[in-house]
């Protein structure tokens, strides 16, 4: 089983108002989280990315974390206070250029001794693009066209040693590169590639280039179905299924008993989805200003306003039909007696594993053995200490079951993820 730690960027998961929460910009917070993950022998430490603070109704959405250090600078610093854990940066292929990406990841791989990884994401968001000179120029349908070209150009640069007489060359629709890399080949040659697109185009892109698919399908049945689809697409792309790892995101809530854990999960969920956040999520689907609506009352009795302009800017917009979404939410609320807020908690803040350490380890093992995944990327509501109890109480049980390493082997992150069989 593979395990990774995920520190998200702009999100609702992190309860920054919790008095135990650390400074979201302080290096000490990230150092604690990364060292905890390394103490747990995790494969890699994974940073999200926020390129612009989100806005709602034209104003700063102040419920988000206001702060995200630059991933390259932060991971380079973390390479000095960790020894073996991989260091993964989320970097957008839409707004960055191949030469700068090739150099930055090559540098990180050198500084860390071969531990760099790149989570490749895309965007067609003009709001975020306004922070860059080209603005939101990229059509939605072309986001993976540019991503593939950017990666191809980076690979051309990574593969071309500076001493070579011929420059690296790549020409595409969006990318045109001719030059030599500024640094020598790095320990891994290129970083581990991670990809999380869930559309059909995103899945095809992922299986064609990525080492790791970062998935949102963490349940048993949905995980098995997703894993089978990825395997089939990998074969169609000419790759062995075992060369593409599937790691879904997961959140763990522990307690001394199942009842204790369930109560703690409920408390965390309502801390993550406060009254303002519940209304914000509802507004994104209803397409209406619901300010003043009672979040602890029933769902709005009006239908959604279907329009192109999103209520919130800077957030990935759902492509689902708002009318169908509202209808399904109404049915769920009626069946389970939800208020608007409790429904948002159920939909947006439900943890993956809840129970005692023994119960959680058993369920993780069952899903892993059933073929639902190759492991998990663990997120937490509390930065920086949220994974402390998982490392202390769950990891040893997975080790006792023979499902997780008891020590690091191999020299690079690629060696950890794909160990050579002697």
From TrEMBL:
Domain Luciferase-like: 23-372
Domain of life: Bacteria
Residues the entry annotates as binding FMN: 90, 144, 199
Transmembrane segments annotated in the record for this chain: none
Keywords: Flavoprotein, FMN, Monooxygenase, Oxidoreductase
GO molecular function, one term: monooxygenase activity
Keyword Flavoprotein: yes
UniProt keyword Metal-binding, yes or no: no
Cited InterPro entries: Diverse_substr_monoxygenases, Luciferase-like_dom, Luciferase-like_sf, NTA_MOA
Annotated Gene3D superfamilies: Luciferase-like domain
NCBIfam families referenced in this protein's UniProt entry, alphabetically: FMN_nitrolo
Family that this chain belongs to: Belongs to the NtaA/SnaA/DszA monooxygenase family.
Name this protein carries in UniProt: Putative oxygenase
């Amino acid at each position: 089983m593979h395990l990774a730690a995920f520190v998200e960027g702009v999100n609702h998961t992190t309860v920054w108002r919790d008095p135990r929460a650390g400074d979201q910009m302080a290096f000490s917070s990230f150092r604690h989280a990364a060292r905890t993950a390394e103490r747990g022998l995790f494969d890699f430490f994974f940073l999200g990315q926020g390129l612009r603070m989100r806005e709602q109704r034209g104003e700063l959405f102040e419920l988000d974390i206001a702060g995200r250090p630059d991933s390259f600078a932060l991971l380079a610093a973390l390479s000095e206070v960790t020894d073996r854990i991989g260091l993964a940066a989320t970097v957008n292929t839409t707004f960055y250029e191949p030469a700068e990406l090739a150099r930055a990841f090559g540098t990180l791989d050198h500084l860390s001794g071969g531990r760099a990884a790149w989570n490749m994401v895309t965007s067609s968001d003009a709001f975020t693009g306004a922070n860059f000179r080209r603005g939101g120029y990229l059509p939605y349908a072309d986001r993976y066209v540019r991503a593939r070209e950017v990666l191809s150009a980076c690979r051309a640069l990574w593969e071309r040693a500076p001493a070579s007489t011929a420059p690296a060359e790549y020409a595409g629709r969006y990318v045109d590169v001719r030059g030599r890399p500024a640094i020598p080949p790095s320990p891994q040659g290129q970083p581990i590639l991670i990809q999380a697109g869930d559309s059909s185009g995103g899945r095809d892109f992922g299986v064609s280039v990525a080492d790791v698919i970062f998935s949102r399908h963490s349940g048993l049945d949905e995980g098995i179905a997703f894993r089978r689809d990825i395997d089939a697409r990998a074969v169609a792309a000419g790759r062995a299924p075992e060369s593409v790892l599937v790691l879904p995101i997961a959140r763990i809530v522990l307690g001394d008993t199942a009842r204790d854990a369930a109560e703690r999960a409920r408390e965390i969920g309502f801390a993550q989805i406060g009254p303002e956040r519940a209304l914000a999520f509802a507004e994104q689907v209803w397409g209406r200003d619901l300010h003043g609506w009672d979040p602890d009352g029933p769902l709005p009795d009006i239908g959604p306003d279907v329009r192109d302009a999103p209520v919130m800017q800077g957030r990935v917009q759902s492509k689902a039909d708002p009318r169908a979404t509202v209808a399904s939410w109404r049915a769920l609320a009626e069946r389970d007696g939800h208020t608007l807020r409790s429904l948002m908690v159920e939909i947006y803040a439900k943890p993956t594993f809840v129970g005692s350490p023994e119960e959680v380890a058993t369920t993780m093992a069952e899903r892993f053995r059933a073929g639902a995944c190759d492991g998990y990327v663990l997120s937490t509501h509390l930065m920086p200490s949220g994974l402390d109890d998982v490392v202390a109480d769950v990891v040893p049980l997975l080790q006792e079951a023979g499902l997780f390493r008891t020590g690091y082997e191999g020299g690079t992150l690629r060696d950890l993820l794909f160990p050579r069989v002697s």
